[in-house]
């Protein structure tokens, strides 16, 4: 009985992580799109990708820390890389390479 309970709990944890990752990815794409609009550059489609996943201990407790990378273009031909860091659902850092944010 305890083996099946552990399996169910692991399955629930995996589904939660998957759904939380989808929500975080949508949030990251939105943040990148707004930042690119503010800097008058073009966010290159399908380039917001999860680069690193880890844990962060803080005053709020344990949170997932996700680092996303994305590509943007200033003139339509060049390609630059930026990154953003989400801790839980909070934006911790946004860097767009040569552009200051």
Q: What is the overall pLDDT average?
A: 91
- Helix segment tally: 1
The topology string of helices and strands comes to HEEEEE
Task: Give a quick account of the main beta sheet: strands, pairing sense, barrel closure.
Answer: 5 strands, antiparallel
| CA-CA gap between termini | 54 Å
In percent, how helical is the residue content? 25-40%
List the uncertain runs: none
**Can you tell me the number of structural domains?**
1
Backbone structural class: alpha+beta
Q: Would you count the extended β strands for me?
A: 5
Principal-axes shape call: elongated
Mind telling me the C-alpha Rg?
17 Å
Report strand %: 35-45%
Describe the model.
This protein has one domain (24-95). 37% of the residues lie in helices and 39% in strands. The protein has one helix spanning 2-38, and strands at residues 42-43, 49-58, 61-73, 80-87, 90-95. Strands 1, 2, 3, 4 and 5 form a five-stranded antiparallel sheet that branches. A hairpin with a 2-residue loop joins strand 4 and strand 5 (90-95). The longest helix has 37 residues, at 2-38. The protein is elongated and about 60 Å long.
């Amino acid at each position: 009985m305890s083996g099946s309970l552990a399996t169910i709990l692991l399955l629930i944890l995996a589904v939660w992580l998957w759904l939380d990752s989808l929500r975080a990815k949508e949030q990251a794409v939105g943040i990148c799109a707004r930042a690119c609009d503010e800097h008058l550059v073009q966010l290159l489609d399908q380039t917001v990708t999860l680069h690193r996943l880890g844990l962060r201990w803080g005053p709020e407790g344990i949170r997932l820390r996700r680092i996303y990378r994305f590509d943007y273009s200033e003139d339509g031909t060049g390609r630059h890389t930026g990154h953003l860091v989400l801790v839980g659902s909070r934006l911790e850092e946004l860097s767009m390479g040569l552009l200051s944010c």
